Amino acid sequence: MASQPFARLRSSHGGILYGGDYNPEQWPQSVWKEDMRLFKEAHINEVTLNVFSWALLQPSEDTYDFSMLDRIVDLCKENGLKIVMATGTGAMPPWLTKAHPDVNRVGYNGEHFRHSGRENFCATSPTFLTLAPRLAGKLAEHYVQRGDAGKPDSPIVAWHVSNEYSGFCWCDRCAAQFREWLKARYGTIEKLDEAWNANMWSHTYHSFDEIDTPSGLGDGMPTPNQYVTGHAVLGGYSLDYRRFYGQQVLHEYELEKAAIRRADPTALVTTNMMGTFNDYDYLDWRTDHAGAGTGVDFVSWDSYPGLGEDAAAIDLRHDLMRGVGTQKPWMLMEQAPSNQNWMPYCYVKRPGQMEELSWQAVAHGADAVQFFQMRQARSGCEKFHSGIISIDGTDQSRTFKECAALGGKLEKLSADILATVPQAGQVALIFDWNSWWGLQFSVGPTSALDYVHEMQRWYRELHRRNIAVDVVSATDDLSQYRAVIAPCLYMFTDAMTANLRSYVSGGGRLLLTPMSALADQNDELFVGQTPVPLRKEVGVWVEETDSLAPSTPVPLVFASHAPVTNTGTASQPNGNMLFNIVHADPRTQVLATYGSQFYKGTPALTFAASEKDESGRTDLAAGIGGIMYCATMPDEAGTRDVIDCLLAGRHVREVESDPLVEITRRTAADPSGHDLVFVINTAEGARTAVAPESGVDLLTGQRVSQGQELELASFGTVIISVQ
Ligand code: GAL
Q1: Is beta strand 269-270 parallel, antiparallel or unpaired with respect to 156-160?
Q2: Is any ligand 1 atom within 6 A of the Cβ of residue 160?
Q3: How many CB atoms lie within 10 A of CB 240?
Q4: Are residues 679 and 698 in the same domain?
Q5: Does 685 map to a domain?
Q6: Domain range enclosing 79
């Protein structure tokens, strides 16, 4: 079971891991002891070591020196800390980039980089692919030999490969390997030409040797041809480079993982992901994706909310990451104790906000709460980034005090929290990296479309209703969900079509939106009546797509039979941005029409039932399955009404609350255990909430009765152990 890794992390430590990135090598040793004292005071029980120490561990190609790391490990051990050990390969030593320039990337515009920053290795560099896994293997061997890893009670509880993998290389070697990858994928150049429809703009290739990378010097041209800036001339070409490069990066990870596993076959291995991160398809990194112990053993990710982001934006990323980890618990590998300095404004977290964000993560499945970083850097480009220990070096800062207070609470509540698992979603939201890339590479039909915003549009409304959502892949088993939403699921494979069909024919209810089911995996539009793959089931034909400026809404007029509960009580619903002009089949119910433009009165929201209930009814309120088609991007009021229709008769559990209060459940892992309900005030200022269940507030020990009004302090949380 994929939940095993966390079971093992727990049993080795007995509780929630609380700590994070610790970089004592950037400080004189005299400071380390004081760190240990302060960690104890803050209830820190874990440190993530060695994230960027390659140059210290390997001063030259043939010399390894782990002595400083050994001293750090020993100190941590003496102080009872558990360790997440990084392989240190996220930043390269200067000798390496000098002696072997093949490790350096070539940029999008052809610049050959020299030593710089971090997370910038070329994923096809033979030197890197040899030396990085070698270092990972040597570290693992060394710490197994020392007795620090490889046993159930070892201080090293998990391995952290590299750091936040990101970006691309556009060098000639990558181009050559891309050609090999294409040969393996397509077999012949004719098949490739056909897949990419390369006759467009005289791109017909007669040999694989003619193919370069779609870089800024090629078909990704940033100038002078503005028409294709950031877009693709041939969608299949640009998409394939994404896929190819992402697979090379994953391959690099797998080599490091294999090297660790050779030394310690029981090692738990992960790398820190970044939520709605565009570069690589994280679904390829899923645990055991290839059935051979590959991928991440558990998901870990770094949560850095931007200024002003609401709880729904943050939780969507938590839920996506949980979905990548097949809905199992995950590790919050990094968050900022207070401000992060790399965003335009270094806002400090408001009093209580760091704790609130931590509970949000736990409520959505985090079984570990960690930070970047333990002590604020004294120089370098992260000197204005917060640390648990601020630059004053004492326990007197607000940041330290808040971290220490949270540490105490986590320690106290650890057993109760770890006896629960993330709740099962009632509604699923399909996230698909290929569709995201395909839309972003497309020229038109609107430049206003943002795939992640489309996810948020739907997620936010479910979040407002406190509905449990799972973010899933289009080929995951959907049968358990009462409704499935597939925003802008642009690219289809046969497997996706079959999966969605079987969900709907099995009684499921699916919502499709504009830009859904339009293209195959090569970005070739399906020829026929749109949406071709599901034309029969969806019961509409999309004839045209109108695109208007975002400031030009079109009213949505809901039919009197539409199961909208809010009519008349809130603002007028509108459609925005894209307006599909559709013809509904005779059996298709029209739930809303457009209220203006030349398509006034034509369908804007439809439902085609896939079945009848026992008395022959096909209406939504009877709960029957089928496909709902929303032909435009609804605004907030419109989204609320569409969701009303989608969920009608489906018995989805909703919990009412102030919009700034979220209510999220973790369910007891064992039937005799207690569910936990997190009632979280996600914003500044006091608020109230109605207790949805009776039980005991774990933070105060006080009894809570269902229906009771709970006083929530600014960013305050009540955790009800349901009993
Ligand atoms: C993360 C990174 C850390 C640190 C942090 C600062 O993206 O993994 O190493 O730089 O940002 O917020």
Answers
A1: parallel
A2: no
A3: 24
A4: yes
A5: yes
A6: 4-169+242-419
